[in-house]
Amino acid sequence: MKIVLYMIDTSAFQGKKARFYTLGCKLNFSETSTFAKLLGEMGVVEAEDGEKADICLVNTCSVTEMADHKCRQTIHRLVRENPGAFMVVTGCYAQLDSEKVSKMDGVAPTRRPTSCNISTTRGRCLPTRPTMATGTSSIT
């Protein structure tokens, strides 16, 4: 068995502030927690209330039209409250309507295709892995 280790320069993340927002199911909350932990290990700290974030992560839901509406509202609010922040939009809404999400102010298209399994019986999105649409700002 061969083990390959990759060195990642995380210095660009040191001292950056992040804001996390989760909509939807327990899986989304678990994924957001994992993202926060991974970013924390790279030196990112959670932004305090009222403090501008350098990174905003929104984990979205798309169970209903109302859920989609809440996702759009949340993304717009975070872009407005954190100008220039690196926006990450993940979750079912980002996967099911990635074209619409990528056209939102403050959000740029994903660099790789999204993947989502759709259940034919209920039309629910069952994400196979976290997928991101990344923001207009770079981490520097």
Helicity level, as a percent range?
25-40%
The neighbouring-strand order within the major sheet is 2-1-3-4-7
Write the H/E string, N to C: EHEEHEHHEEE
Structural class: alpha/beta
Average of per-residue pLDDT values = 80
> What is the strand content?
15-25%
Which outline best applies?
globular
DSSP strand tally: 7
Number of helices: 4
Radius of gyration: 15 Å
Straight-line N-to-C gap: 37 Å
Main sheet? 5 strands, mixed
Low-confidence stretches: 112-137
Describe this structure in words.
The protein is α/β, with parallel strands linked by helices. The chain is built from four helices and seven strands. A five-stranded mixed β-sheet has the order 2-1-3-4-7, with helices on both faces. It has a two-stranded antiparallel sheet with strand order 5-6. A hairpin with a 6-residue loop joins strand 5 and strand 6. It starts with 16 loop residues before the first strand and ends in a 6-residue tail after the last strand. About 19% of the residues have low confidence.
Summed up:
The chain has four helices and seven strands. By secondary structure, it is an alpha/beta fold.
Strand-helix topology:
Elements: E1 17-22, H1 26-41, E2 45-46, E3 55-60, H2 65-81, E4 86-91, H3 92-96, H4 98-102, E5 116-118, E6 125-127, E7 133-134
Parallel strand pairs: 1-2, 1-3, 3-4
Antiparallel strand pairs: 4-7, 5-6
